[in-house]
Amino acid sequence: MGLYISGYGFKSDEELKVQAACRKHDPDLVFQRSARTGNYTVFQRMMRDSVYVKHADAADLEQGDLFPLRAFPNKRMPTPDEVSKWLYENDRERGDLLDKVQRHNKSVQARMDKDVKQEASARAEFLEHGFRMLGEDTGRTVSTSNTGKRRRSFG
To answer: Bridge partners of 66?
Structure first.
């Protein structure tokens, strides 16, 4: 027997029991078949619609916010006890792995923010130069430091 869930397809009783065991351990855990490998996999749901997840370079992220924790090879359905035991034994490692992924995602975001800031600065400089060439006043003044050797100039 099983259950048909719209958008997810047919779920067997065994799959629903394992899913319940995962949810009992942590509400952010998802048990389903991996779309890429076809193996049953335990996923950690990351922050939904997080900018770090959406723009992550990690090829292991599936569906945007699911991070694979453990795959069961050969398309074998694990028992709920087996999954619960694995989750209990590896809970600390899971936290360390997720912290590592989040640190990586934050560094990627910082790098992207730095690139955007540099690009915006270069574009602003280009536009200001263009306006000055046309004789338009941009309202911005630029000064150089006064070392005492020459007069300060304002652009």
So the answer is: 45, 62
**pLDDT for 111:** 92
Contacts of 105 (CB under 8 A, 6+ apart): 50, 52, 53, 56
Phi and psi at 104, nearest 5°, equal -60, -45
Q: In Å, what is the CA distance from 5 to each residue of 9, 19, 21, 27, 37?
A: 5, 13, 18, 19, 21
Q: Is the pTM of this model over 0.85?
A: no
In single-letter form, the type of residue at position 75 comes to K
Q: How many CA atoms lie within 13 Å of 75's alpha carbon, on the beta-carbon side? A: 4
Confirm if 43 and 69 have CB atoms less than 8 A apart: yes
Q: Which residues of the chain are modeled with pLDDT < 70?
A: 1-9, 47-64, 92-95, 140-155
- Name the E strands within 14-80: 29-33, 40-45, 66-72
CA distances from 79 to 4, 8, 72, 76, 82 (A): 20, 21, 11, 10, 5
SS3 (DSSP) at 90:
coil
